[in-house]
Amino acid sequence: MCAARLAAAAAAAQSVYAFSARPLAGGEPVSLGSLRGKVLLIENVASLCGTTVRDYTQMNELQRRLGPRGLVVLGFPCNQFGHQENAKNEEILNSLKYVRPGGGFEPNFMLFEKCEVQPPLPDH
Question: Are the CB atoms for 43 and 74 separated by under 8 Å?
């Protein structure tokens, strides 16, 4: 599951809750249906983006402050925008912890395996 598939689902009048995604840290896929009734903030992220420090720290803060009120932040790493997430899935968490934002940073929100968030361009 990825943001691109979510967009396709919306176009086909399917619900975001019909999908699941595998956590970056490993484990079983998370059914987005289990998040029904929550407010979802779905964000494509990249650890080498110029806004990485701001974005990740703000998403942590949003999850910390608003999570108890029903907000669930979902991060989907993507390499489609300027190749700014060129790390492998198993490298991303260490990149966040030691490089950018660094300083031992750990996301407190759900971060999923790397995916493509834009659908493929049509052939002409």
Answer: yes
